Amino acid sequence: MGEILTDIKTRAKNIKRDIFILIEAYKHPNTPLYVKLLALIFVAYAFSPIDLIPDFIPILGYLDDIILIPLGILLVLKLIPKDVLKVCREKAERSEKVKRKNWIAGAVIVLLWVGVLIWVVSLFL
């Protein structure tokens, strides 16, 4: 069981690193426009609190988090030119953003959900 948990943590760190690689690729001048657009879409979706399939739907709700995001990231990474990908990987590895937890972004997302919850409750009162 501990081995599975370690594997999940490793994959999560890799996805986080890959998201920062996509951000660097988006900013790189030699990245094709269609790849920049795909990178923007998947980065925005990965950080978005809104899912394609809501998480409250049993099993299906987590499919986008488990399957769609990693597959989308993998697809965009494959489309990035090799020389650009190498530079972006190096920049992402050196970046402190990959290594630290983003508490501010987490707090903003939690506050958004609390605001939505308060709004929904106020509709029914």
UniProtKB/TrEMBL annotation:
Entry annotated with the keyword Transmembrane: yes
Principal place of residence: membrane
Pfam families according to UniProt: DUF1232 (PF06803)
Localization annotation: Endomembrane system
Transmembrane segments: 33-53, 59-81, 102-124
Stretches assigned to the DUF1232 domain: 35-71
InterPro entries reported for this sequence: DUF1232
Recorded topology in the membrane: Multi-pass membrane protein
Keywords: Membrane, Transmembrane, Transmembrane helix
GO cellular component, one term: endomembrane system
Annotated protein name in UniProt: DUF1232 domain-containing protein
Organism, as annotated: Oceanobacillus arenosus
Organism placement in taxonomy: Bacteria, Bacillati, Bacillota, Bacilli, Bacillales
